[in-house]
Amino acid sequence: MPAGSTLSTHVTLISSDGFEFIILREAAYVAGTIKKMLDPTSAFAEAVTGRCTLGSINGVILEKVCEYLYYNLKHKDAQDVPDMDIPPELCLELLMAADYLQGKPSEALS
Amino acid sequence: MAQSNNISAAQISADYERRRREAQEAAEREGVANAAEVAEDEPQEERVETAAQKKKRKRQQEQALAKIKKSKGKKGKKNEVGEPDSDDDAAWDMYTKKTPLPGQLENCELCDKRFTVTPYSKTGPDGGLLCTKCSKEQEAARKKDAKPKKQAVSRDKRRHTQSNLLDGIVSDGAKSLEQLCIEKVADNIRDVEEFGDLPKSLLNRLSQLLSKRRVITSRTLDLFLRPDYDTIDIYDCGKLEVDDYIKMFAVVPKAQNVNLRNAGQFKDEVIDYIVERHVPLRNLQLEAANLVSNAVWAKLFSHCGQRLEYLKLTWLDYSMDDDTFDHLISGCPNLKRLKIKKCFRLSDQALSAISSLHNLEHLSLRFPAPTTSPALRDLIASIGANLRTLSLESFEEADDEVLSTIHHTCTQLTKLRFCENDLCTDAGFVSLFHNWQSPPLSFIDFSSNRSIDYTQPDGPEEDPTGLASAGFETLMAHSGSRLEHLEIASCRHIDYAAFARVFDGKKEYPLLREVNISFLTKIDTTIAAGIFRSCPAMKKVTAFGCFNISDVAVPKGVALIGVPNAQDSIVQEGEMEMDWMP
């Protein structure tokens, strides 16, 4: 997408095994890393094409990630949000994906 | 009983049917006569008119019915023994003749469908009856409208909110995916075989959560051990045995940062193993390792001491006496950070030993055994100049001269804790902060600096004890611009006017985000509001026992904890509105 024109409402996330998830740009922005990738002021390929290839995340996990992004967006200002259900077998991989996608160094690291 | 009821009900219904039939016949006769008399030539128009006025008439009928029912009820109560209300029955029959009765057919008011009237048929918006389907829909709509009100405050929810508040969680919206996953992993820790390539920070958080739930066992410990790690953080070692500790250092031979809390079974054998294998320890934190003998402590520090930069020893109540501590200090000359807390056998001798550590930048002490003010003064005088952190908890014998020594020597501090003392005076605190060379501090904890003389609950009138008004104002004047964390719990000699001047809503403390004002009973709603206004970055206000705070408007994202009289306003959305401020 060339700079200056209006941003697309949806963006595409592509998993390591080639699954494509087309989600709302607003939802994608929940994840800090994806937001930076799509930053319209940057000249990243992702920002230009609106397609983010996430090479470290497979389709199963990315589907869950997308579910979370929408879940987060839906409950943005709500209080006492019910926890999203995460299948136990996915939680470790999802944890790694979450760590990567939140896009900021954890304070525990410093 | 039921049978007799049935019988009488049947009788009543039979009577009713009979009366209704009679009345209807009479009405029909009358109606025919009327029709013949008034509008013999336009029967069709009459019918049209009937349809148009149907609703109106129904409403009138219903009103009349209601009136009759009322009067009937009253009368019935009045003359219980009297004759049956034949008059009322007649009136009833007369007025109800056109109202469809249970069992009869009627057109639905909303959808115009023909349906059988039942006792459960609902009245529509215009007073007509509704068919079963429309009745149900109407009920559902009504329930939907009523629901939000009912949800208002459930006890569980409030408890949950409070619990989160105590954990400092006030942000709206969903938990982070990371948090959700970590909790899920902790829930299912029994099924986890290995963590894989989790980043260090996540491992640490998992360890914290698992320790909190007390599920770190010999088996779960394995998840945190990998040969390529250099860090071992286990916050609850309560279930680990000597073999587990040895396994730690066998699997992670390059461990540099070791943090073991609740390490009751951390014994001589483990230290022997560490010394034997030359584990390159640099940061060591041990809590409650009470089974280590003095001789082995000395051995550990003479072997690993040179490398040690950070040492934290807490809750050592049997081992580690003053002489062993001398070994520790002489063996670890390069310490930058030293925390010694609740080591019951250390006293003045240990304080003077620490004064030889000239590389120290951070020093935190809490000695349960009594110490003297001169020993503490000497310590600060000799190493204070380099210190970034000075934390002195519960040094009850420390007096104003200690504060004055801090004033003269410590000029690089960013964090200062001096709590649980009743000897220092307000004048001492004023002179500490007045014209202090040290740049503004970011962390100040002066909790419980107050008089504990029960005969004078407000302290001496002249020359107040502890951190009082003047000291507090000087403190804020010196450090307010950089202060992030302030604890003044129980400093109860600070008066209202001082708070009002410091938190007047105009002065701004741009970085202050956490404050503890517990048991400062003089603080009221106005001061609390002033705190919110003066501290735009505020995140957490701890105010246990502040009974004068009530109905305060808590800005979004701020946790106000412990206020007993402001339960409902604890988390409030929206921006601050404090036009009523003086």
UniProtKB/TrEMBL annotation, chain A:
Its main location: nucleus. SUPFAM superfamilies: POZ domain. The keyword Hydrolase does not apply. SMART domains: Skp1. One of its GO terms (molecular function) is translation elongation factor activity. The keyword Transcription does not apply. Residues 11-73 form the SKP1 component POZ domain. One of its GO terms (cellular component) is nucleus. Pfam families: Skp1_POZ. It is found in: Nucleus. Keywords: Elongation factor, Nucleus, Protein biosynthesis. One of its GO terms (biological process) is ubiquitin-dependent protein catabolic process. PANTHER family: ELONGIN-C. Belongs to the SKP1 family. Essential component of the SCF (SKP1-CUL1-F-box protein) E3 ubiquitin ligase complexes, which mediate the ubiquitination and subsequent proteasomal degradation of target proteins. Controls sulfur metabolite repression, probably by mediating the inactivation or degradation of the metR transcription factor. This is Elongin-C. It comes from Heterodermia speciosa. The gene is TCEB1.
Automatic annotation (TrEMBL), chain B:
GO terms for cellular component: SCF ubiquitin ligase complex. Residues 102-139 form the DNA repair protein rhp7 treble clef domain. Residues 67-77, 144-160 have a biased composition (Basic residues). Coiled coil: none annotated. Residues 1-11 have a biased composition (Polar residues). GO terms for biological process: SCF-dependent proteasomal ubiquitin-dependent protein catabolic process. Residues 82-91 have a biased composition (Acidic residues). Residues 15-31 have a biased composition (Basic and acidic residues). PANTHER family: PARTNER OF PAIRED, ISOFORM B-RELATED, RNI-LIKE PROTEIN. This is DNA repair protein rhp7 treble clef domain-containing protein. It comes from Heterodermia speciosa.
